[in-house]
Amino acid sequence: MGEFDLIARYFKRPPRQAVLGVGDDCALLAPQAGMHLALSTDALVEGRHFLSTVSPERLGHKALAVSLSDLAACGAQPRAFMLSLALPRVDEVWLSGFAQGLWALADAHNCDLIGGDTTQGPLTISITVMGDVPAGQALLRSGAQAGDDIYVSGTLGDARVALDVFRGQLSVPEAVFEATRLRMELPTPRVALGVALRGVASAAADISDGLMGDLGHILTASQCGADLHAEWALPLLACGPALNLPPAQQLAFVLSGGDDYELVFTASPDRRDAVQVAARAGDTSVTRIGTVRAGEGIRILDAQGQALAQRFTSFDHFA
Ligand code: ADP
Ligand code: MG
């Protein structure tokens, strides 16, 4: 099968929203008046961002999910995406599985695949997503203020538990492995939550590299520091009660785990009710885990309000 047959068979469908999709030299979108276009791009490299053990269906889902998560963090509504694939060879079993996982998530978000590029090379998946957000309403990293509450959506750290099991660094009961593996391989982008947080959150980011790093980006951009409460954060590790691990190690999964694709965001304390309304609209839990303060850095406080000495970091491809 040649390049163009491959594209036509797996990646070409009539767009639902775009003016022109796959098959021409350019795709065409009709921007809406009063909206800003939100754009984000991500590359996934085998061995770096996913393991060869992942099924093609789940990989197709995850490749799009990590990009939709960026739109969610900005409060943008997904509209369209482009897909660049480097494939070592034409493997139709792989392609049909990948396309199935990709289309299922794209359809769930009414997001059109409008173009891309296909080449031969080591397996790499690059996706550029486009979304829209009313002008001036995008959630940014730079809006947090001292005194704001800090929240995270969903659960944190479970994806990293599965990764550590794959790496042979941790052993857990089979049922825990299956549950955490789902979190690693099938993340849920919090698109509806992000949209519902427009006008409510003062700053937001998605958690791809771990809470410490991604909250750290908000704090750096906002020129603030933060206090997090260990006993509020600890229950976020969903598999925690089923693990035979000391609390400090469970906390490390929550704070430094990565690959969660939840949202971390800040909001003024007088928006607590509005945050819970947004959580219901987003069909997810949100948990308040701390407070933005003047200064810099993240302090982790114990139940007595004492700062923990233990250091928590986050994932860095070049560190
Ligand atoms: P060009 O020659 O301009 O680079 P291509 O021949 O690479 O265009 O691609 C032909 C059409 O197929 C274009 O509309 C392009 O956007 C689309 N396309 C190529 N690869 C993919 C892909 N993996 N997924 C979706 N669309 C793709
Ligand atoms: Mg091309």
**What is the percent of helical residues?**
25-40%
Query: What proportion strand?
Result: 15-25%
Record the strand order, biggest sheet.
6-8-5-9-7-10
Low-confidence stretches: none
Small-molecule binders here are:
adenosine-5'-diphosphate, magnesium ion
Mean pLDDT: 96
Structural class: alpha+beta
Number of helices: 10
Order of helices and strands: HEHEHEEEHHHEHEHHEHEE
| Bulk shape | globular
Number of strands: 10
Describe the structure.
By secondary structure, the protein is α+β, with helices and mostly antiparallel strands. It is built from ten helices and ten strands. It has helices at residues 3-10, 56-73, 92-108, 158-166, 174-185, 191-196, 211-222, 230-233, 247-256, 272-281; strands at 35-45, 77-87, 112-120, 124-134, 149-153, 203-207, 225-229, 262-267, 286-293, 298-301. The strands form two sheets. Strands 6-8-5-9-7-10 form a six-stranded mixed beta sheet, sandwiched between helices. A four-stranded mixed beta sheet has the order 1-4-2-3. Helix 2 (56-73) runs parallel beside helix 3 (92-108) and helix 4 crosses helix 5. The radius of gyration is 20 Å and the shape is globular. Bound molecules: adenosine-5'-diphosphate (ADP) and magnesium ion (MG). Adenosine-5'-diphosphate is lined by residues 7, 11, 22-25, 83, 85, 113, 115-118.
